[in-house]
Amino acid sequence: MQFSSPEGEHRYADLVRVADRTIVGLDFDGTLAPIVDDPTRAHIHPDAADALIDLAPQVAAIAVITGRPARQALDLGGLEEVGDAIQGAGKELFLFGQYGNERWSSRQRRIVSPRPPRGLATFERDLPRTLRQADAADAYVEDKGLAVAVHTRRLPDPGEAFERLLPPMRALAEAHGMVVEPGRNVIEVRSPGAHKGMVVEKLAAELDARGFLFAGDDLGDLEAFEAVTELEKTGLAALRVCSASQEQSALLPLADVVVTGPSGVVGLLRQLRLDIMQSSAIG
Ligand SMILES: [Mg+2]
């Protein structure tokens, strides 16, 4: 464990003091699980499960926050078993998949997906008129549950229809609080993207946390770091941990602690547990 500044060391000590009200948030790939060539084989570090189980009784909750679908992360992490052990100790393990669009916890034991975004129904109601006005009434509309996709592939000139449709669809999407995601002869409309920062913010509020540690390794973790920094401004103890790798260094300048990959993260979790136990023995 290497503190990137004297402040980092102070922040760590502050976090230890409010450990029982602290949430430990962890990215999965590159943080708990080593990066491998085949992402379907990115299993959790062999010592990570025990480190999480041992740490859990000392903190408020542990949350794994990943871009992966929740089901995949549960399987690759063996997180249902880890959750059983943590739940047995009277604490809770959370797993947020697809950047927070899916939620699982050791108490609820099922993956909860979101309701369709709020603007989607009214967007769909207004869509036929927009298609008619753009002379694309025959475009194929695919309801994807959490999004709608308009395909121009079956129209006489798909490319031209796509170009013609994009501006009015973008305007309609924005009017309903949605965003467009253009693809190959398809315009998808969905809610503005979930991100890990939203998970950090919501979970801290839900559990009334007084501290938040987040460990990540990649660009998708930037929002979580930023959310932790926002919480810090409201008085929470905060610690940003970078699981460092050769490939990505975007988090380094923002981190309080830098460790080397998943083995370093496991080492930090173990050290944190010891420091909390020592601190409470003294206090
Ligand atoms: Mg990662």
Outline:
This protein is α/β, with parallel strands linked by helices and 283 residues long. The protein has helices at residues 6-17, 48-55, 70-77, 79-88, 120-133, 158-175, 196-206, 222-233, 261-282, and strands at 2-3, 22-26, 61-65, 93-97, 102-105, 140-143, 147-151, 179-182, 186-190, 211-216, 237-244, 257-260.
Describe the structure.
InterPro entries: HAD-like_sf, HAD_sf, OTSB-like, Trehalose_PPase. Belongs to the trehalose phosphatase family. Removes the phosphate from trehalose 6-phosphate to produce free trehalose. Pathway: Glycan biosynthesis; trehalose biosynthesis. This is Trehalose 6-phosphate phosphatase. With 283 residues, the protein is of the alpha/beta class. The protein folds into two domains: 202 residues, Rossmann fold (3-Layer(aba) Sandwich); 71 residues. Helix content is 41%, strand content 20%. The protein has nine helices and twelve strands. The strands form two sheets. An eight-stranded mixed beta sheet has the order 1-12-11-10-2-3-4-5, sandwiched between helices. A hairpin with a 3-residue loop joins strand 6 and strand 7. Helix 2 packs parallel to helix 4 and helix 2 packs parallel to helix 9. The longest helix is centred in the last third of the chain and has 22 residues. The protein is elongated, with a radius of gyration of 22 Å. The structure holds magnesium ion. The site of magnesium ion (MG) has 7 residues, from loops.
